[in-house]
Amino acid sequence: MEFLQPASWPEALAMKAAHPEALPIAGGTDVMVEINFDRQRPATIIDLTRVADLNAWGMERGFLRIGAGVTYTRIIDELGERLPGLAMASRTVGSPQIRNRGTVGGNLGSASPAGDAHPPLLASNALVELASTSGSRRVPVREFYIGPKRNAMRKDELIAAFLVEPGKGPQQFSKVGTRNAMVIAVCSFAIALDSERRQVGTGIGSAAPTPVTAGEAETFMKAVLDEGRLWERPAPVASSALARFGELVAAAARPIDDVRGTAAYRTHALAVLARRSFTWAWDEYRRTAPA
Amino acid sequence: MRVSCTVNGRRVTADDVWEGESLLYVLRERLGLPGSKNACEQGECGSCSVYLDGTLVCACLVLAGQAEDRDLVTVEGIGSAESLHPVQAAFVEAGAVQCGFCTPGLIVATHDLLRRVPQPTTVQIREALAGNICRCTGYAKIIDAVHLAAGRMGAS
Q1: DSSP per residue over chain A, as a string?
Q2: Please, which of A183, A215, A273, B124 could form a disulfide with A189 given CB 3.0 to 4.6 Å?
């Protein structure tokens, strides 16, 4: 095994170009499990923890651009107010030890359907910035996941950052698991209300081959809110509409039976999570919306 | 490969390290520091909790080369048999140690908690220690020990 440790981003990209099969490592919370259990024996590993650029975040034309190496702990501490949905999801990741090392960049690289960061990134229409020696590109996260643990990256690319607008309204994340901590999602759901564009964003985790959105549920709830003029005069959403929203979210999933739960359970749970999460977010909007 | 780093204030070097080796293996098998325990090797149990540049991490999830030139503190650096740290003394007195296998990780994780939150609530303790698994105690006496340590450290 070859261990490469670039000191800068250009050096990291050059190493990835020279070793397209190399496995990048940051916090190690996924990669080291693979190596410790001999599930993967990569010929080359590129350690990205010395690349300072990956640990930085800042504003860029209305978006937060967050380096792929920013840990969950830092997202909670430093960005919790601007990205409440992602921060909620981050708080459910592993334990303090895991959140101190694990990164959203790693979640995107692994592209597990159960990754906790994916639903809030989908709900907020985040972008993933990929880079290689031939340049960089930004891929909508809604096009990034292409199969179980597969993403839209080319072999010569590394994940530089993700971009997401600071929340323009209430956001929520909820997750079903057997404990409150150290748990991989049985299923999860994120919602982001955009009170400027008057849109409803969704993300579903652990209930399809990839993280997915519930497009019909988004369209349906946008119509409910628009037709009732509820953004201007916030009132409770009818329980029949909430139930329909839950059904449409559940219908967007393609769950399977596995060791963590059955497809039927996941479908039922998603409808409940969606209804509750929307209600929590909408109640917050009603409390905080300008009169 | 060779890995050099600072462990418990001492500059140390390990030779013939395999590139895929974890920091935990380096600590236990190459540097003679068996305090950090090897149980799950997947970050689930917290038995190998150490500080890496002042941050609480699972040593089993750090690749050896990632520790190059970094500053590490293991349970051996927190107290000694002759001079227990107040967290260690509280664990002994409260009966929070049974088989003892999880104890080193819990000591380091508790040390980290009390550094950040000197007087934690029970909920904060449960949250902070959620990644440290104990199969003996049922946790009640561990939580008692953290409260005991917090009270003493705050009073001193």
Answers
A1: -EEE--SSHHHHHHHHHH-TTPEEESS-TTHHHHHHTTS---SEEEE-TT-GGGG-EEEETTEEEEETT-BHHHHHHHHTTT-HHHHHHHHTSS-HHHHTT-BHHHHHHH--TT-TTHHHHHHTT-EEEEEETTEEEEEEGGGTEEETTEES--TT-EEEEEEEPPPSS-EEEEEE-SSSSS---SEEEEEEEETTTTEEEEEEESSSSS-B--HHHHHHHHHHHHHTTTTTS--PPPHHHHHHHHHHHHHH-----BTTB-HHHHHHHHHHHHHHHHHHHHHHHHHHS--
A2: A273
